[in-house]
Structures are given as C-alpha cells and as structure tokens.
Amino acid sequence: MTLRLDDCYSIERLRLAARARLPRPIFDFFDGGAEDEITLRENVDAFQRLRLSPRVLRDVSQVDMAAPFVGAPAALPCAIGPTGAVGFGWRGGDVALARAAAQAGIPYALSTSATASIEEIADQAPGRLWFQAYILQDKARLTDLISRAAVAGYEALVITVDLPVGGKRERDLAHGLGFPMKLTPRNVCQFARRPAWSLDMLLRRPPVMPSLAGLAGRTADRRAMKSVAGRNYDPAFDLDDLARLRDGWKGRLIVKGVVNGLDVDAIVGLGADALVVSNHGGRQLDTGIASLAALPEVLAAARGRVPVLLDGGVRRGSDIFKALALGAAGVLTGRATLYGVLAGGHPGACKALQILRDELQRTMQLCGARRLADINDDMLRTVSP
Predict the structure, then answer these.
(1) 135: helix, strand or coil
(2) How much is the pLDDT for 343?
(3) Span 228-275, pLDDT tens digits
(4) Which helix or strand (DSSP H or E) is residue 188 part of?
(5) Which of 64, 189, 210, 284 gets the highest tally of CB atoms within 10 A of its CB?
(6) In whole angstroms, what is the distance from residue 181 CA to residue 197 CA?
(7) Where does FMN bind (predicted)?
(8) pLDDT, tens digit, for every residue of 190-239?
(9) 294-300 — which CB contacts under 8 Å span 24+ positions?
(10) Closest Cα partner for 291 from 109, 37, 45?
(11) What is the pLDDT of residue 191?
C-alpha cells in the first residue's frame, strides 16, 4: 500500500506510509522495541486506558497552546526528541526534523547517534537546539562533543541515563541488521523489494554517524544478543560523573530516562533543570513501566522544583493533553515525528507536527480548555484494562 502525505491524516497513517517505502529491516529498526516489545506496546496502551471527562459551556472559540517550555517560550508544549540513525530511513532526515521543529516554534534535540553533525544542524536549521549526549566510554570524544555543542549555540544538554548497556532488539537480530549495514542472506531480498531506497544507498553510500565515527573500530557482532545501541557507552557512569558534567556545562541540563521517584532528589540536587520520564521508547529494557504510568511518581518526587517532561507512546494530540492533565510540563515526540520524516522527509515531519497540533487544539476545545493552564486531572478518568 502506497500512501501520499495528503492521505496521512494520523500518525498511524504516516507509520504505514513509512513502512511502505522502507525495506523491512530498516523499518523494523525504527519501529521495533526490546525482546517481546511489552513496554513498547504499554507506552501506547497507557494513554488509551485514560479517558477524557470534558467540561462544557466554555468559550473555546480561541485556544492558546503556547507556554514556557524548559526556560523559554514554545508554540506547543512539546519538543522533537532525539532519534538516532534517521538518515538511514530518509537521507538528510535529521536536518529535516530540526527544520520542522524550528518552523513549528519548538525545540529539537539532536542525538549523539544522528546522521548529521552538531554544526550541520546549527547551520542549516537554526532554532531552539538541544544536544543529547550518550555517555561514551571515550571521555575525550564526549568532552569534545559537548564543547562543540556549546560553541554552536545549543541551549540545553540532554543526558540520557537509561542506556548503560544496549537492549536486546529481536527484530534487528532476526534481520541480521547491524551498523555499518551489510548485506546478508536474511536481508538482501528485503532490500531488493525497495529498489528506490536500495539504489540510493548503493550509489550514494549509506550515511555515517559523525559524532560516533571511528569509535570502537569494529562493526556490530550480529551473533551477540544485544542491540547496536550501547556498545560504545559507559556502564560505570554514576551521579558523581553527572555532577561533573553539570559543573562543566553552562546551559540548561535535562536528564532523560527517569522513571523511579527514588532517583529524583539526587538528580535535582546536583542542578538538573528538567527531567524526562522515559523508558527509551521500549527499545532497551522490556517489561519496564510505561512512561505515562511512571509520570505521577516522578512528579510527586520532583515537588515542582523542575519541569517534568514525558517521552514514549505519544501518537495523538489527545495524548499530549493527557500528559499535561497529569502534570507534565510537556512531551518529547519520538516515533510520531520520526514516522513523518521517514514517510516524506521535511514535509512529512511538518505533517506529523501539524497532525499533533490540530488534534491537541481540537481536544482542548472539546474538553473546555482555552489555555494549557486550564488542563488538569479533573478532566481525566481511568478505565480498567
């Protein structure tokens, strides 16, 4: 099934469009999760177990979706979260996402494993930029990346703390997929079924991840039961190391990957400016708690000292509404905008944000909320599984 962007009226339709144009191993790399993918599904299902209880007889002819967002104004209560290897799905996809975010008036977070450099994003897509740093074993490389982000004007450093080791992503194992990509008997037929993508990769060569170029000097071991992600990361990284990073970074510090309230005091105490409740999109630890289910505990532990954002499972504007109603300061989009760029590059990324914006506006109007401040948990009800 081939879908034009004009036919994509939901994030799920963008997902189907992306699936239609990509070889199965590449689509599954972006779409899949760890092991049995229970957490991947739970991230979405948790939103569906919350029901909306609208208020009525309110003037909602105009709604305002703008709000302060991690220290600066944003046109929507969201940012495009860090997603790696985007260029393997759409060449130039990282720049396309960053431009879409700038045009929408929201921040964009560049992943360490992006297929664009820190400077390329700053030059081609100026806007509110965050740099997401994985904790590399090569500390000289990590220090250099963070320094480059500061020089390039990135306003925030996002430290991902939920990836001490790579997860077990069984879709990738089934396809024999690794990076750098190599043809194997298991994936060559799948690539041949998508000749446009395959010819582009053959003639122009696959993209590289410039921030990780040269690390480890080896390809992924396709026999190892772990994902490519995590093989260069430092499992010894702890609170003292995070404190040293905080001392050396003069911008805002966002800590991503917090789901347990017991971790909050220490992270806030060392100077974090915001937290992101996230389980890495269900891509690392399976059977971990859904992000939305973890949100109330983290909010309670934060006690209003820092904004708490949510990442994972956002597929509808109503999902953003529900996260805000529970007390989140906003959300990070991951797969929602990723499906858009994989389906249609920059126009697809813009389409994804337009869908979420329109759905959030409609949900606010139907629930009687004229401003984001009007959204609260009085408008939510929980249904049994």
Answers:
(1) coil
(2) 98
(3) 556 688 999 999 999 999 999 999 999 999 999 999 999 999 999 999
(4) helix 188-192
(5) 284
(6) 14
(7) 82-84, 111, 160, 256, 278, 311-315, 334-335
(8) 888 898 998 998 889 999 999 999 886 444 444 454 555 566 889 999 99
(9) 294/259, 294/260, 295/323, 295/326, 295/327, 295/328, 296/326, 296/327, 297/259, 297/260, 297/261, 298/258, 298/259, 298/260, 298/261, 298/264, 299/326, 299/327, 299/328, 300/261
(10) 45
(11) 85
Query: In 3-state terms, the chain is what percent helix, strand and coil (to 5)?
Result: 45, 15, 40
* pTM score of the predicted model: 0.95
346 is catalytic: no
Looking at per-residue pLDDT, the higher value among 26 and 1 belongs to 26
Question: Residue 186 pLDDT > 80, yes or no?
Answer: no
* Amino acid identity for residue 73 in this structure: P
The amino acid occupying position 355 is I
Report pLDDT for 218: 43
First CA to last CA distance, the chain: 33
Phi-psi region of 194 (alpha: psi -120 to 50; beta: other; left: phi over 0): beta
Cα–Cα distance list, 157 to 131, 154, 230 (Å): 5, 8, 19
* Nearest to 175, CA basis, from 184, 165, 167: 184
Alpha helix positions (H), 284-367: 291-302, 317-326, 335-367
Residue 214 is assigned to a ligand binding site: no
Q: What is the CATH number of domain 5-170+228-382?
A: 3.20.20.70
CB atoms within 10 A of CB 104: 24
Is 24 among the annotated ligand-binding positions?
A: no
Domain boundaries, the chain: 5-170+228-382
pLDDT digits (tens, 9 = 90+) for 15-71: 999 999 999 999 999 999 999 999 999 999 999 999 999 999 999 999 999 999 999
Phi, psi of 133 (to 5 degrees): -105, 120
335 annotated ligand-binding residue: yes
315 labeled binding residue: yes
Dihedral sign from CA coordinates of 236, 240, 242, 244: negative
Chain CA centroid to CA 14, Å: 16
